[in-house]
Here is the input.
Amino acid sequence: MKENELIIKIPSKINYIKIIEEAFWSYISINKLENRISSEYLILALVEGVVNAIKHGNKMDCSKKVKVSLTLEKQYFKIIIVDRGDGFDPDCVLDPTLEENLSKKDGRGIFIMKKLMDRVEYKFTNNQTKLIMMKQLKE
Here is the structure.
């Protein structure tokens, strides 16, 4: 574990997201980040990522955990969310802003995360999907 890193593991049940939210707000407070990031945006991106990991990655299988890591890295706040899913092709996710997709539910969470964060990337390995999101800290 790195210095300034918080790791939380939860079962793949939506009601456990509250634990992630509480840990996030504690982490922000302990590390005195209130004036260096837009925490309301970060929590929204974090929750979207965890919901996707639970629903789409782990398919709501309670035996599979979602691992969340919050880290301060130089001038960035970094969120890593890991699930035990098979992965997907991010380039094939529908653009929810196109008229033909406005009534579809797919793609909204990823769209929101990309708009709120400075960097969003996925890594896929051996039945594991890792979402990495970064937001630059204010001086």
Observations:
- The domain at 5-136 is CATH 3.30.565.10 (Heat Shock Protein 90).
- The radius of gyration is 15 Å.
- Residues 92 and 132 are 18 Å apart (CA to CA).
